[in-house]
Amino acid sequence: MNVPARYVAVIGCGRLGSTIASALSQQGESVVVIDREEAAFSNLSAEYSGFRIQGDAAELSVLREAKLDRADLVCAAADRDNLNLFVAQAARELFGVGRVAARLFDPTRQPVFEEVDVLTVSPTMLAAEAFLSVIQAGDG
Amino acid sequence: MNERNQGTESPVPERARPATVLVADDEKNVRLTVAEALASEGVRILTAVSGEDALQRLADEDVDVLLLDLAMPGVDGIEVLREVVRAAQDVAVVVISAHGTVARAVEAMKLGAMEFLEKPFSPEELRQAVRQVLARQSNAAAELPVNGSGAQGPPREG
Q1: How far is the alpha carbon of A91 from chain B, nearest alpha carbon, in Å?
Q2: pLDDT band at A86 (very low <50, low <70, confident <90, very high)
Q3: Which pLDDT tens digit goes with each residue over A100-115?
Q4: What residues of chain B lie within 8 A of the CB of A73, using their CB?
Q5: How far apart are CA B54 and CA B60, in angstroms?
Q6: B120–A51 C-beta distance less than 8 A
Q7: Residue A3: pLDDT above 90?
Q8: ipTM above 0.85, yes or no
Q9: Which residues between 50 and 79 in chain A have a beta carbon less than 8 angstroms from any beta carbon of chain B?
Q10: Contact A57/A50 with Cβ under 8 angstroms?
Q11: DSSP B39-100
């Protein structure tokens, strides 16, 4: 416990958000996860020891409830690019969060995220790279 | 025996036995959060999954601090708090409540809760709250040996 836990907000508790939130919680970070659906929280691992907020992350009041102003890191892992962009932008510009990462399905929109200094993770690009490396390994 | 200074730097005030903290919350992840946050504090941690469970634990164990979620199905936190006050139990109650439930938290403070934590709270906020109520408890024990009830007046602030 030498390093104080960081406070991390994860938006979306689907397959991706729940995996990120569970892993960070197990690493000892202080985590809050937001999802519209109460049922989504069942995706969290049994060891998850953070907080859960049921609500629409598109509403600023929900982001305030999650105390985004105190977050060290925000992961926008919802299943909609527009929501992730909104949350990422609000985190950077309204709540002054230092590090923000967002899931981005449509790689062509990456410049919009870069404009607000948000790191993007594109499942499409990652999957494409993984496929190509599998195919190239098979060729060898 | 007691050669330690009163003003030691230890996180929790010195006492004859480790302080016992009971966490009553129906959400398992909150019980885990609390247990992890307090693991370094040298306190004994008990958990209760409901209001009924909390009352049973309070009857069976010598609890110093009760971390009490207000929103629990069945016997809720306010009812547990009323029971603690009615039985004049010497337990410092820290209320845990969700965002936007300030009115209920205020009600709990009026009933005699000492502190309130709004979810989501950081491990450090939780440790501070527990240290504060334990310090106040040991001060009260040192300064008011005659007053055995341990009853605390409601806070006067608005």
Answers
A1: 17
A2: very high
A3: 999 999 989 889 888 8
A4: none
A5: 10
A6: yes
A7: no
A8: no
A9: 50-53, 64-67, 70
A10: no
A11: GGGT-EEEEESSHHHHHHHHHHS--SEEEEES--SSS-HHHHHHHHHHTT---EEEEEE-TT
